[in-house]
Amino acid sequence: MLEAVKHKGFDKLFYQYNRLYLIQRHFRYVGVAGELQPQSTGDRPILYIMNHSSWWDGLLAYHAARTMTSGEHFFMMEEEQLRKYAFFRKLGAYSINRHNTGDISASLRYTARLLHERGNIWICPEGEIQPLEHRPLNLQGGVGLVLRLCPEAVVVPVTLYHGLFRHSKPEATLLAGNAISHPWRAMDRNSIVKELQTVLREQLDHHRLMMVNNGGYIPGGFTPLMKQGRSINEWFDAVRQWGE
To answer: Which helix (H) or strand (E) holds 224?
Structure first.
């Protein structure tokens, strides 16, 4: 497996590039609701679990973590992709190879070690990109092993809902749910996975309803993580009003 090799200088530069160019150029809006770093967790390590429905998931999670929280954050990434984009290791990315049993074990134990060292870890436990409306959400068993190896960890479920709603550019919202703390070591892996699977699915369904019930507009309670620009339709509207 490929371990993270964090580099503060590169991280600082990439954060600005991601914020001012990548996200600003490709999204009309990115926002977060809920507490990504709940005060109730104290100094306990946090395992963030997130649904995986687009290529952007990691970059949006990275931006949210860097903008809204403190402390070290690490991100589990598919090994094939991390080999292509090795510079992500400098941002805290490390790999998992789902096709190699030994590598899976090494990656999960590495995850637990990072948590023990008070790192905050982001994983997409579905294991692969699935369409946003795909149901059911099937989480892999590795998340259960990680929590049994690091029972002091707290789980924060994060759902990402995105789409082309009322503008030419997509909008994305991240919703952080309530922190989950259990005596993980006393639970078996299947019980952990089933509970987290249910929590993440119910939260994603609720997140979807928030958007549907608000007619595709961003619901109240979300904090924007970027300077909101104009989409093409908004420029058209501005030109039309100027000409009237």
So the answer is: strand 223-224
For the chain, the residue count is 244
The pTM of the full predicted model, rounded to 2 decimals, is 0.93
153 Cβ neighbours under 8 A, 6+ residues apart? 44, 45, 46, 47, 115, 146, 147, 184
Q: Tokens 């002091």 sit at which residue?
A: 152
For residue 106, what are the CA distances in angstroms to 151, 198, 239?
Answer: 18, 27, 57
Domain boundaries, the chain: 8-243
Report DSSP letters for 146-158, one per residue. Answer: HHHHSTT-EEEEE
* Proportion of the chain in helix, strand, coil states, percent, rounded to 5: 45, 20, 35
Encode pLDDT of 20-71 as tens digits.
999 999 999 999 999 999 998 988 999 999 999 999 999 999 999 999 998 8
CATH 3.10.450.50 is right for the domain spanning 8-243: no
Q: Amino acid identity, residue 17?
A: Y
CA distance 145 to 167: 42
User: Nearest Cα to 211, choosing from 168, 176, 164, 177?
Assistant: 164
Helix axes 8-17, 57-68, angle to 10 degrees: 110
- Would the pLDDT of 150 be above 80? yes
Q: Which two tokens stand for residue 41?
A: 């967790």
